[in-house]
DNA sequence: GGCTGCCAACTGCTATGGCAGTTGTCCATG
DNA sequence: CATGGACAACTGCCATAGCAGTTGGCAGCC
């Protein structure tokens, strides 16, 4: 549905960057700054300082910080200051398990109310993934993976779910730096898992889709090093 | 832990109402107004109008509306207005399933990092529940139920989980008006489920706690009428 | 009558200024 | 030297004013 269809008689839409509010832009930028390491954990940040640094007023910055606090990335002590939250391995693991559960529910909902046309889009993404797996193109695989999950999120049509998973995905980029790049032997496994999820979607089986999605996210977190392998597995 | 301990040498804390920011107060008030029926779905609301109505500035109102939008309770069209979102039975069911999944994860995390002293508190809550069940005191049962879940949420220590479940709980009050009061025969079942969850916590079994908690929430949603009974059940 | 274009009254959004509370520093005092 | 208190430099929080974009309606024209 979101395929490139140029509508006749309508002007071209603005570059997405221009149409967003300053608060939204500040939110994304600050979030990226946190997960990428600048704005280190424990570092103090102030509304006015960031405002002058970003060239905007203090109000949008305040809104951005408030959203970041809801995400758990900063904590503000009233009248005392705002500091970047320290997200240790333990918390990262918790957030990963939360994300796995939510992704599972999203897959279940998507399986129920998926329109027929969307299946073609998933097939296309699977094709991209297969090509990326054979050539070991990590960038392309990452992009396809993003598309895959984002499309499932939006297929649910649930704004709460979409927003929550969007926030949780940010932490994903944070945990990835500890184990850069998946093991080559894990790429085919991820591909099979994605194929299995799409198969469950095509079968309109919410329970199966949820189970497969949740297992996929959990295993992906294990190979990324943010989760320990569950007990009772083969690992020397 | 949250039991009434008066700390020596410190002044008595203010009434919670006084220490909260105006934005936080506006958020809670507006959320309550929405779930209770005033501010009907589809109704337009404006920052300035609410500001004068609440006797505060437009800025805290704006923050409150932004949080409400993240919860999915209002949707604001840029430069056009803000309207109360219509939460139909279908969306209510989705949110219920999301809440069930998150409550399950919360129970699992609580089972892992529960300190020994907290078990006594759960035992006390169970006692209150048992008494309320025998006398069919719905108000006391509701209060005990709130305490039960809130304590589990805080036992996880995860701010993201706490905040998300707090937002989702608001919808719970919205769906309850369609089936006022549980069936009398369902009260003992709820009690048994709560006891089973506490038993899993005491056993430090995350998997069991999650399964029981999730099943409990789902069944509770079924008896409240927001969720249809799963296929393959005895119901004429 | 039906359509076009303009104008006033909204809307959300941002900038500015100032409030109250906290903290760190520096000087006066015991 | 150690201690206490006041001042200045912060902080987050809130109120006010004005911006830009949207909408409804009314006058004017075809």
Automatic annotation (TrEMBL), chains A, B:
<dbReference type="InterPro" id="IPR011711">
    <property type="entry name" value="GntR_C"/>
</dbReference>
<dbReference type="InterPro" id="IPR036388">
    <property type="entry name" value="WH-like_DNA-bd_sf"/>
</dbReference>
<keyword id="KW-0805">Transcription regulation</keyword>
<dbReference type="Pfam" id="PF07729">
    <property type="entry name" value="FCD"/>
</dbReference>
<dbReference type="InterPro" id="IPR000524">
    <property type="entry name" value="Tscrpt_reg_HTH_GntR"/>
</dbReference>
<protein>
    <submittedName>
        <fullName>GntR family transcriptional regulator</fullName>
    </submittedName>
</protein>
<feature type="domain" description="HTH gntR-type">
    <location>
        <begin position="20"/>
        <end position="87"/>
    </location>
</feature>
<keyword id="KW-0804">Transcription</keyword>
<dbReference type="GO" id="GO:0003700">
    <property type="term" value="F:DNA-binding transcription factor activity"/>
</dbReference>
<dbReference type="GO" id="GO:0003677">
    <property type="term" value="F:DNA binding"/>
</dbReference>
<dbReference type="InterPro" id="IPR036390">
    <property type="entry name" value="WH_DNA-bd_sf"/>
</dbReference>
<keyword id="KW-0238">DNA-binding</keyword>
<dbReference type="InterPro" id="IPR008920">
    <property type="entry name" value="TF_FadR/GntR_C"/>
</dbReference>
<dbReference type="Pfam" id="PF00392">
    <property type="entry name" value="GntR"/>
</dbReference>
């Amino acid at each position: 549905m979101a395929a490139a269809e140029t509508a006749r008689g309508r002007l071209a839409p603005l570059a997405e960057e221009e149409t967003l509010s300053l608060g939204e832009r500040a939110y994304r930028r600050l979030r990226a700054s946190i997960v990428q390491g600048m704005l280190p954990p424990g570092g103090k940040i102030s509304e006015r300082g960031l405002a002058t640094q970003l060239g905007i007023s203090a109000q949008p910055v305040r809104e951005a910080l408030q959203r970041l606090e809801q995400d758990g990335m900063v904590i503000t002590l009233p009248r005392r200051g705002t500091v970047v939250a320290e997200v240790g391995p333990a918390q990262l693991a918790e957030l990963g398990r939360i994300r796995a559960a939510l992704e599972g529910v999203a897959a279940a909902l998507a399986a129920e109310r998926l329109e027929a046309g969307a299946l073609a889009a998933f097939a296309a993404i699977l094709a991209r993934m297969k090509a990326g797996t054979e050539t070991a193109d990590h960038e392309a695989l990452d992009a396809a993976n993003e598309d895959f999950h984002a499309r499932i999120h939006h297929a649910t049509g649930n704004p709460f779910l979409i927003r929550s998973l969007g926030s949780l995905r940010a932490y994903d980029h944070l945990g990835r730096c500890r184990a850069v790049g998946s093991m080559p032997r894990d790429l085919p496994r991820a591909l099979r898992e994605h194929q299995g999820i799409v198969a469950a979607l095509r079968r309109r089986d919410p329970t199966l889709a949820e189970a497969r999605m949740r297992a996929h996210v959990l295993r992906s977190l294990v190979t990324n090093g943010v989760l320990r392998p569950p007990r009772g597995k083969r690992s020397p």
